[in-house]
TrEMBL record:
Its EC number is 2.5.1.7. This is UDP-N-acetylglucosamine 1-carboxyvinyltransferase. UDP-N-acetyl-alpha-D-glucosamine binds at R93, R122, P123, V124, D125, L126, D306, I328. Keywords: Cell cycle, Cell division, Cell shape, Cell wall biogenesis/degradation, Cytoplasm, Peptidoglycan synthesis, Pyruvate, Transferase. The active site is at C117.
Length: 421
């Protein structure tokens, strides 16, 4: 098994090129299932989750080909299978995103129920309810969601009880090929929703309201894509900015989009960072210890849950005491006990963490439990007084492209090592 060995003490300095967004690329690549023509996607990060997606699309009968490191061609004109099997879904929950497109295109989809994961139960009831409202007949059989519809799905008025990112994406993709108009209320407003909508529109879909809480989708009978460029990864960007802030460094993130990171940038400024931005870059300068900042996660445009763990590490070493409230996932504090093993002062009560800043952390052997928790532990390692080993980094490889290469280029001492499993 692989782990990271991190030797702390060097402020991050220099420039880092941000990759395409995992959470935008996943639904966008799945949307190729709706197109009768081949599409070339660019700015696609070759992350483990993306490779799983390519495997899934290939199993369904699509032809996929990497044309360059970050350029992928998908031809789904030939899909012939409608089943996403458990062995793929269990490694990547986002496989649920084939449900809407397959049902809309083929009138039939079988997708393994994802089950829970380290950060919470994560049900998919809203995906199912929305598709039922569009006329689908859906049952759960032997752990699989089995969905059928004779003819096209029907447009429907759908109110989502809880704001769900992939739920909104699944329904938006299904509605794009439905007969009639679908209105999704209380829709997610994340930038990745806007990116998916733009991709679908480039394929001929009629969608308005992306980025607001009401989406209107007028179904069309056929979609034909040609090319689409995935947006930059706002969470990778935020992670590098926090790493630079914690190490009191000075970095510039290139190929990114500051407008997708407003809540994160404003919290970094509150912590004492100087932030400069251009159209596609963000510079951060931190010349002293961070000030503690309170965080409350909530759907976009509020502070993203995917940045909570990284900010917890910043607060662990900050001046003062911070309250961190996680409102999206019921078990997303798994990094806290690992940070405590490095000397952090954190007390947990339900969905609230009280973090009292300490002067320094000691290195330790710690275990990554999920994607962003792993990032928070790597950041802690970058400033710990003694070496840190972060185990189970297959979590981090799901969402960060060559993170050790990018951190090394900024001056960090981090290496990938083999350890006994
Ligand atoms: C691939 C991807 O884009 N992943 C992101 C997506 O996950 P994902 O789309 O899975 O997260 P959701 O937005 O659906 O989850 C938000 C909340 O809604 C609940 N819920 C969701 C669906 C449902 O049918 N029923 C239900 O109760 C969830 O348990 C959770 O409490 O959004 C999350 C919230 O911003 C991010 O942390 C993930 O990085
Ligand atoms: C939770 C995340 O991803 P996923 O929904 O793929 O588990 C994440 O990107 O932080």
């Amino acid at each position: 098994m692989e782990a990271f060995k991190v030797i702390g003490g060097t402020p991050l300095q220099g420039e880092v090129v941000i990759s395409g967004a995992k959470n935008a690329a996943l639904p966008i690549l799945m949307s190729a299932l709706l197109s009768k023509t081949p599409i070339v996607f660019s700015n696609v990060p070759q992350l483990n989750d993306i490779l799983t997606t390519v495997k899934l699309l290939t199993q369904l009968g699509a032809k996929t080909q990497w044309l360059a490191d970050d350029e992928l061609s998908i031809d789904a004109s030939t899909i012939d299978l409608c089943r996403a099997p458990y062995d793929l879904v269990k490694t990547m929950r986002a496989s649920i995103l084939v449900l809407g497109p397959l049902l809309a295109r083929m009138g039939h989809a079988e997708v393994s129920l994802p089950g829970g994961c380290a950060i919470g139960a994560r049900p998919v009831d809203l995906h199912i309810q929305g598709l039922k409202a569009m006329g689908a007949d859906i049952d759960v059989e032997n752990g699989y969601i089995v969905a059928k519809k004779d003819g096209r799905l029907n447009g429907a008025n759908i109110f989502m009880d809880t704001v769900s990112v992939t739920g909104t994406e699944n329904l938006m993709m299904a509605a794009a090929l439905a007969e009639g108009t679908t209105i999704i209320e209380n829709a997610a407003r994340e930038p990745e929703i806007v990116d998916l909508a733009n991709c679908l529109i480039s394929m001929g879909a009629k969608i308005t309201g992306a980025g607001t809480d009401t989406l209107t989708i007028e179904g069309v009978s056929e979609l034909n894509g040609s090319a689409y460029r995935v947006m930059p990864d706002r969470i990778e960007t935020g992670t590098f900015l926090v790493a630079a802030a914690v190490t009191q460094g000075h970095i510039k993130c290139l190929n990114t989009d500051p407008s997708a990171l407003e809540a994160v940038l404003s919290k970094l400024q509150e912590a004492g960072a100087t932030i400069n931005t251009g159209d596609d870059w963000i510079e951060l300068i931190m010349s002293g210890p961070a000030k503690a900042v309170n965080i409350r996660t909530a759907p976009h445009p509020a502070f993203p849950t995917d940045m909570q763990a990284q900010f917890m590490t910043m607060n662990v070493l900050a001046q003062g005491t911070a309250t961190v409230i996680e409102t999206i996932f019921e078990n997303r504090f798994m990094h806290a006990p690992e940070l405590q093993r490095m000397g952090a002062n954190i007390s947990l009560e339900g969905n609230t963490a009280i973090v009292k800043g300490v002067e320094s952390l000691n290195g330790a052997q710690v275990m990554a439990t999920d994607l962003r928790a792993s990032a928070s532990l790597v950041i802690a390692g970058l400033v710990a007084k003694t070496p840190t080993q972060v185990d189970r980094i297959y979590h981090i490889d799901r969402g960060y492209l060559r993170i050790e290469d990018k951190l090394q280029a900024l001056g960090a001492n981090i290496t990938r090592i083999q350890v006994e499993s």
